[in-house]
Amino acid sequence: MSLLSVKNTLSRDKYSTGRNKMIIMEERMTNIIIVVDATNGFCKEGAIVDKGIMQNVPNMVNLIKRKRLLGYKMIVVADNHKPDDLEFQRFPKHCIIGTEETKVIDELKEFVDYYVPKTRYSGFYKTNLAKILEKEKPKEVIVIGAWTDICVMFTIADLCNRDYNVVVPRDCIKARDMTKTEMCLDIIENTLGAKLVETQEEL
User: Fold this and answer.
1) Contact at 8 Å (CB) between 26 and 137?
2) Helices (H), the chain
3) Per-residue pLDDT tens for 155-178?
């Protein structure tokens, strides 16, 4: 084999190796669904229960089932408060650590890949959510759950600040104060830069 042939072979091998590394990196990227506060304390029982959230649960289930077939993983971020949490100066006591209120609703619990306890509005504040996302390297993050005007919006803000590609289906989120829904959706779409779609069936 001539020297030129050897150089060409090495060059092809180097290109092939680099290409294989790129393919492996792409295969390791897993898209994510983040479900915010779809727990008993928000949906079924407790001082801040909002049973209107349950109206969106069939849409959430439909979305999650379809996307899991495509390899999406599901992360639940959920309130888990100490009894003396300062948040209770603004809201009634809810979702105390170790209680039934902190558990994912039955309709969704079979799909959970990660459960992230949180103590504030954003799913990132003093949690391991950032590390999970760094590990999974998602191309897309779909955010669903409650409430649009509090924890959903603050979690989306921190996702967008980290340059994730965020998508939000309107029929899978619910505001605490319904009069603020459109204002919050405008901020989510036009200020934070998330993609807003009308129904989960569009995804």
Assistant:
1) no
2) 3-28, 40-43, 57-68, 129-136, 153-161, 181-186
3) 999 999 999 999 999 999 999 999
One domain, residues 19 and 49? no
Same domain, 17 and 102: no
CA nearest to 146, candidates 172, 164, 178: 172
| CB-CB neighbours of 112 under 10 Å | 16
Q: Each residue of 24-53: pLDDT tens digit?
A: 444 556 899 999 999 999 999 999 999 999
How do beta strands 166-169 and 195-197 pair?
parallel
Return the closest-CA partner of residue 203 out of 68, 53, 37: 68
Distance between CA atoms of residues 112 and 145, nearest Å: 14
Which tokens sit at 109? 């619990």
Query: What CA–CA distance (Å, rounded) separates 47 from 112?
Result: 25
Q: Are residues 47 and 88 in the same domain?
A: yes
Domain around 11: 1-27
Give the C-alpha separation, 48 to 76, whole Å. 19
Nearest residue to 126 via CA among 113, 115, 116, 137: 116
Q: Tell me the Cα Rg of the chain.
A: 21
